[in-house]
Specification:
This is Crp/Fnr family transcriptional regulator. By secondary structure, the chain is an alpha+beta fold. It contains nine helices and eight strands. The longest helix has 26 residues.
Amino acid sequence: MHLDTSKISSFFETEYPLNKHGLRELLDLFSIKKIKKNTQILTEHKEERQLRFLNNGVIREYYSSSNRETNINFYTKPQFITDLSSFIHDTKTKKNQETLTDIELLVIDKIPFRQLLQKYECGKSFIDLSFQKLLKQKELFEYNRITKSSEELYNELLIYKPNWLQTIPQYHIASYLNITPETLSRIRRRIS
């Protein structure tokens, strides 16, 4: 199976300018993985052992308690989907990820990735920048959840994440907004 690295190459060129030799070596370490819809790809209480890049498809990320699941993110475009905190610090994740469509991933195991980081200094900047971005996203997400109404949050999805509203089932969007599907229906009727 041919390994298409065009999306991940473009991602690195835009998001994280890396040493060209290091990038080529990194891309050569990835393998391709095709996964069917409704498959669990990350489970809480397990250690993240692979760096995963979403090439195609849709994934939901969520927390689970004894009586409910709460969506915290959706991945719909080419990007890394690894729980970096678990991956880098060798800790167990609190997150779950499930495929909402058939997906295609590029994956690299932790040990060869770490060996590459030691070889190229730019790898450290990739990790540092990734953590800074994650922290910024997390803070914004928490701030929005606390300070904005469900309707305001839905309006932001309309503006900033319209592809979510077109590709993700409404009951998952409702969970992300921390409301019932019925409340989401009422908000949608009011706005349209």
